Amino acid sequence: MEIYVFLAFILLLSVYLGFELINKVPATLHTPLMSASNAISGITLLGALIIAGRTSSPELRTMIGSAAVLLATINVIGGYAVTDRMLAMFKKKEETKK
C-alpha cells in the first residue's frame, strides 16, 4: 500500500514541476523544446511497439500497447505539425509580383 502513496507523490510532484517549468519558458524557446518533446514521443512510440509485440498475456498487452502506439503517434504527428506551423511564422513572406 505504501508504494502507491509513494507513486502518487511522484506523479503529483512531476505534474507540479512540469506545470511550473512550462509556465516559465519564454516564447522564443518553445519551438526547440517542442522538437525535443517530439523526439521523446518517438521513443515512447518505439517502447509502445515493443510492448504491443510481446506474446505473454497477449490480450491485455496488445490492447495497452496498441492504445499506446495510437496515442504516441498522434502526439508525434501533432507535435511536428505545430512545430512546422510555428517555424513558418518566422519565415519572411514573399513579396507578390505585380
TrEMBL record:
Cellular location(s): Cell inner membrane
Known catalytic reactions: NAD(+) + NADPH + H(+)(in) = NADH + NADP(+) + H(+)(out)
Keywords of this entry: Cell inner membrane, Cell membrane, Membrane, NAD, NADP, Translocase, Transmembrane, Transmembrane helix
Any Pfam family: PNTB_4TM
NAD is among the record's keywords: yes
Domain NAD(P) transhydrogenase alpha subunit C-terminal, residue spans: 9-92
Protein's membrane topology: Multi-pass membrane protein
EC number: 7.1.1.1
Residue spans crossing the bilayer: 6-23, 35-52, 64-83
Function, in words: The transhydrogenation between NADH and NADP is coupled to respiration and ATP hydrolysis and functions as a proton pump across the membrane.
PANTHER family associated with the record: NAD(P) TRANSHYDROGENASE, PROTON-TRANSLOCATING NAD(P)(+) TRANSHYDROGENASE
Protein's UniProt name: proton-translocating NAD(P)(+) transhydrogenase
Annotated source species: Zhongshania borealis
Lineage of origin: Bacteria, Pseudomonadati, Pseudomonadota, Gammaproteobacteria, Cellvibrionales
